[in-house]
Amino acid sequence: MAGTGRIALSTLSATAALVLVACGDSVTLPEAPSSSPLTTGSVNQHVTQTGDAMVTIDPASVMFKVDNSRSLVVTFRLTSTAAEPQSVEVRASLYDGGGQVIGDATGGAVDVAPGAVVDFQLNGNYPDGSIASVTFEAHAQASPTPIGTPTPAPQ
Question: Cα separation of 122 and 134, whole Å?
Fold first, then answer.
């Protein structure tokens, strides 16, 4: 019995000694590498639109953010200027201050009505630098007629 008590006492003493030694030490953990800001200045002043879609993108509505998965999310308001419903596909090409492509984001919407104002969202990978300007390339095609829609009889 006396031997067991001495072993327990010596184990307790050793543990206490380790705790006391560790109390004064500080552990330095490596920091995450610093990253550049997502945008530089006001990107809204450097928005260009190209493509054949009958739409306009409101430059003042363009916003960039990063979601929880570290993916880029680009949001903006798009207005259809087409006479018929259309399916719209948009690609945003992102540029740094030197004019180099640093990323892109894509998305689309089906059956955008004439004159409709749509809140659009594009998704892409985190850019390889700070966004200084963006070019939106918008393409469209006529929306298909839904199945089951009656066709007017010839008169």
Answer: 13
